[in-house]
Amino acid sequence: MDKHKLLQQYWGYASFRKPQASIIDAVLQNKDSFAVLPTGAGKSLCYQLPALLLSGTTLVVTPLIALMEDQVKDLKNRGIKAMYFEAATPLQSIVQQIDNCIHGNYALVYVSPERLQQSAFLERISQANIVRIAIDEAHCISSWGHDFRPSYRKIKVLRTLFPEASFLALTASATPEVAQDILEQLEMPSAQRFSLSFERSNLFYKTWVAEDKWQAAHAQLQQYPGSGIIYCFSRIHTERLAAYLKQQGVAADYFHGGMEAEEKKDKLAAWQSDKTRIMVATTAFGMGIDKKDVRLVVHLDMPESIENYYQETGRAGRDGLPATAVLLLHSSDQTEMKMRFIDHLPTVESLQKTYKHLCNYFQIAYGEGPDRQFDLALSSFCEHYGIDEKQTLATLRLLEEAGVLKLKSTEKKLLEVHALVDQSVVLQELRQNTNAKSNALLHYLLRAHEYFFSAAIQLDVSKMGQQLQMGKQQILKELQHLQQKQLIRFTDQHIDFVIYDMQAREDAYTLAPLNVQVKANQARKKSKLNAMYRYAWDTQKCKRNQILTYFGELKTDNCSQCSAHCCSATPHIKELLSVLESQLKSAALSAVELRQKLYFEPQFISDGLQQLLEDEKIILKNDYKYHWIDD
Ligand code: ADP
Ligand code: MG
Questions:
Q1: Among 34, 67, 60, 326, which residue's Cα sits nearest to residue 190?
Q2: For the CA of 17, the nearest atom of ligand 1
Q3: From ligand 2's centre to the CA of 156, what distance in Å?
Q4: Which ligand is nearest to the CA of 43?
Q5: When comparing pLDDT for 468 and 159, which is higher?
Q6: How close is the Cα of 103 to the center of ligand 1, in Å?
Q7: Would you say the CB of residue 42 lies under 6 angstroms from ligand 1?
Q8: Given this model, what pLDDT does residue 374 score?
């Protein structure tokens, strides 16, 4: 069957968009290819459709579970065999799943980059008939990109594992540096390249100064009907703002990286089916999620780069209809952003310190081999040394990037249990107690640990769960019960990382090459942040053009639909004057009040007021308010 027929039959689309057909041809010819196409251009189709045309399986590497789920569901609905590996699946069932993949004729198999770090997984999957590899959101591979994921760097193991398979890398945002990095990292210097303009002609870019950002966000929602996303930097802000909006009668909800998978799934579904109109979210929300009719994206906090901003606003208007992207600004933003994005960056000093602390904390001796593993609970580690958690995390990531150590995220819980009584009391308790569960637990503690009565012992909750046939929650409940009875005391600690392959300790040599990198990294982040800041506060240049220039595209005209002076002043002055008239006729208002109520660019409001003053329609009185002069 030819590709046009497939497009009709499985997707019901009449034709390919530019340059889908040429990319698909390159893939079919087994050439390495690299596509930089804006969000919504239809990148997925470029690896999905060829997967149907050739025998064998296409392996798709993609960073987010939500994204995999979304695509696999969509493919299944279209009658295409696809599967993905759940993040939380234990290795046992993964093995089973890979066997299904090997024998089950799957066209597409989705995998997260983290999976590629598991040797058991790699060993198994190497037996599958993987003939093509697609790397979606490929910018994650580059530390120049806005979403760097160290595990993306592991993708190249697939080259060795499947030497015959061609690579297709896709991304929606690649400055020249990122593009270069992607090609190098994926070892495909002569890949065929495809790109499209980054212009989103249906997007209206606006930046407004707002005294009260919540109120401003709410006003935007009233002004622009339809589905929307409000991005906040912090998780707690998403929750609070969503609650505020609900109070105002908006069907809003929140979404952030700290929620359970189940909860995320439900919330996403509610938003996708328009039960929830507005999702207040951290940027964990939305990457690659396919909802076409998002009409409004509001940023309460400035992202750290234009790439991020472009990507996040790109989630609006994917149906090609008009949509608005609003960035709310406040004079305190610059300080905030510095705190958020710069102050936590690793420094030469934090690097030395963190490394030294790690060696001490885990008692790693000079010259010790790299074969030990260490459980790291980040917060207690940082508390122990009185160091900043975010900076420490960033420093650890850098150490990993430089190959000094490896980090594996884990959801492991470590319990520390102290006995508060001696053995006779416990035995007596066992005789008297009729609760089978808590007895089982006590027996476990007695049997599993000979030192139970003399020292604090550490327990791995999932192991206990398996042996006792209890869930984690149940175990914690029973332990609490025993704690109430004053038999034990316990603390439960979340292990964030397992550290392994840590390089032998020779501080100066281990770290010297990193110092240059740390400085370069700082400079890079600062320059990205500055570009974002200039975009936000430059009210003169067309917003669309500012973005396109950043990506190396030059325009000769203006977009006439953004909030910059050149684009918005002339066409809407009549509208502004009539709005000012109706506002001031009903009540005298100060300039600040007007700015909060009206979502025109502040300078533009000042111009309007100036004109009304000159026309003697209004007067500024001692109360600093503008009063309408009755005709
Ligand atoms: P990207 O990954 O580039 O952001 P997607 O692959 O998610 O974009 O596609 C965006 C939307 O465009 C999807 O709903 C997809 O089904 C649709 N689409 C892709 N190709 C075509 C086409 N040739 N004709 C019509 N719609 C298409
Ligand atoms: Mg995509």
A1: 34
A2: 23
A3: 21
A4: 1
A5: 159
A6: 30
A7: yes
A8: 86
Q: How far apart are CA 23 and CA 505, in angstroms?
A: 48
| Domain-wise residue ranges, the chain | 3-195, 203-330+538-550, 348-412+497-521, 413-494, 573-628
* 18 Cβ inside 6 Å of ligand 1: no
Task: Assign 3-state DSSP to the chain and report helix, strand, coil percentages, each to 5.
Answer: 50, 15, 35
Question: Tens of pLDDT along 312-370?
Answer: 998 999 888 889 999 999 989 989 888 888 888 899 888 888 988 988 888 877 766 66
Ligand 2 centroid to residue 499 C-alpha, Å: 32
Residue that is written with structure tokens 């989705």 in the block:
110
Q: Helix H segments across 314-371?
A: 333-337, 348-361
Segment 368-395, tens digit of pLDDT: 666 778 888 888 889 889 998 888 988 9
**44, 80, 198: which to mutate for ligand 1, most atoms within 8 A of CB?**
44
SS (H, E, C) 160-199: HHCCCCEEEEEECCCCHHHHHHHHHHCCCCCCEEEECCCC
513 CA distance to ligand 2 middle (Å): 36
In testing the pocket of ligand 1, which one of 3, 36, 45, 75 has its CB within 8 Å of the most ligand atoms?
45
| CA 413 vs CA 175, 214, 393, 404, 565: distances in Å | 41, 37, 19, 25, 55
pLDDT-based confidence at residue 217 (cuts at 50, 70, 90): very high
Q: What is the assigned CATH class of domain 348-412+497-521?
A: mainly alpha
Separation of 8 CA from ligand 1 center, angstroms?
14
* Third-level CATH fold of 203-330+538-550: Rossmann fold (3.40.50)
Give the residue, out of 8, 11, 23, with the most ligand 1 atoms within 8 A of its beta carbon, to mutate for a pocket test: 11
Ligand 1 within 6 A of 39 CB? yes
290 touches ligand 1 (CB under 6 Å): yes
Q: What is the mean pLDDT of residues 205-214?
A: 90
Common-topology check for domains 348-412+497-521 and 573-628:
yes
pLDDT of residue 369: 61
Q: Is 36 in the pocket of ligand 1 (CB under 6 A)?
A: no
Q: Based on C-alpha coordinates, what's the Rg of the chain?
A: 29
Q: Is 395 in the pocket of ligand 1 (CB under 6 A)?
A: no
312 close to 231: Cβ distance less than 8 angstroms: yes
Within 10 angstroms of residue 147's Cβ, the number of other Cβ atoms is 19
Class of 3-195 in CATH: alpha beta
Rounded Cα distance, 125 and 505, in Å: 35
Neighbours of ion ligand 2 (CB under 5 A): 43, 288
The ligand 1 atom nearest the CA atom of 11: 16
Query: What is the torsional sign of CA 259, 260, 261, 265?
Result: negative
Task: Report the pLDDT value the prediction gives residue 89, as an integer from 0 to 100.
Answer: 66
How does residue 259 score in pLDDT terms, banded at 50, 70 and 90?
Answer: confident
User: Distance (Å, rounded) from C-alpha 555 to C-alpha 623?
Assistant: 46
Render pLDDT for 487-502 as a digit per residue (tens, 0 to 9): 888 877 777 788 887 7
| Nearest-angstrom CA–CA distance, 609 and 620 | 10
Q: Which of 379, 410, 375, 413 is nearest to 393 (CA)?
A: 379
Could you tell me the fold of the domain covering 573-628?
Arc Repressor Mutant, subunit A (1.10.10)
Q: Is 84 in the pocket of ligand 1 (CB under 6 A)?
A: no
Query: Whose alpha carbon is nearest atom 15 of ligand 1?
Result: 42
Confirm if 171 and 137 have CB atoms less than 8 A apart.
Answer: yes
